[in-house]
Amino acid sequence: MKFRSIFALIILVACCLSMQVVVAAEDKDGVLTTIDEAVKQYKSGDYAGAVSNLDYASQLVRQKKSERMKDLLPEPLVGWQANPASAQTLGTAVFGGGVTVSRDYKKGDAAVSIEIVSDSPVLQSVMMMLNNPMFAGSSGGSLKTIKGQRAIVKYDDKGLSGEINIVVAGRFMITVKGNQVDLNTLVEYSETIDFELLAKH
């Protein structure tokens, strides 16, 4: 009987340890732990601490999202070179917050940059322009459809520079800028972005 009790205790300890390992594996970025701490603070009446931890947890989630979004930035076109993609996350205290990923491309004197912004209040003003041709025209742009998405195109033929702004799923704003490039190159870079996959993030 004593042997059985010891054996049962060993099994129980092993199960507890395995559960801790699973939780640790699932929470390697600290999000769940931070949220649990915020819940405890809320229950104890420490609302300031709960808010601080929830803000921190949301920032960690944005960072994880930005790393996934970096994979959606396209590879360079033939003959072009590209720098590694970069990511930046902002809390709600800065311009309402948001996640930004970007990548720079170069070919001789020609340069193109692609930036994807999500979770930002700035998207509202861009969507307003896309839904109203008068706004786009007053800002010097023209409306264009790229792979089924509405876009605002601004291009200077003399300066060989311009930008294309595209809103995807009402949550993502894509900006493709270029210097010393023709408009076709900007459109081609815009078309290399997987809009459907982006909308799933």
Describe this structure in words.
With 201 residues, this protein is α+β, with helices and mostly antiparallel strands. The protein has two domains: 2-65, no CATH class; 73-199, Phosphorylase Kinase, domain 1, CATH 3.30.200.100. 46% of the residues lie in helices and 27% in strands. Strands 1, 2, 3, 4, 5, 6, 7 and 8 form an eight-stranded antiparallel β-sheet that branches.
Q: What is the count of DSSP helices, taking H or I runs of 4+ residues? A: 7
The name of the CATH architecture of the largest domain is 2-Layer Sandwich
Radius of gyration from the alpha-carbon trace, in angstroms:
24 Å
What fold name goes in the CATH topology slot of the largest domain?
A: Phosphorylase Kinase, domain 1
Order of secondary-structure elements = HHHEEEEHHEEEEHH
Number of domains: 2
CATH class type of the largest domain: Alpha Beta
Please describe the structure with a list of short key phrases separated by commas or semicolons.
Phosphorylase Kinase, domain 1; disordered N terminus; 2 domains; elongated; 201 residues; 8 strands; alpha+beta; eight-stranded antiparallel beta sheet; 7 helices
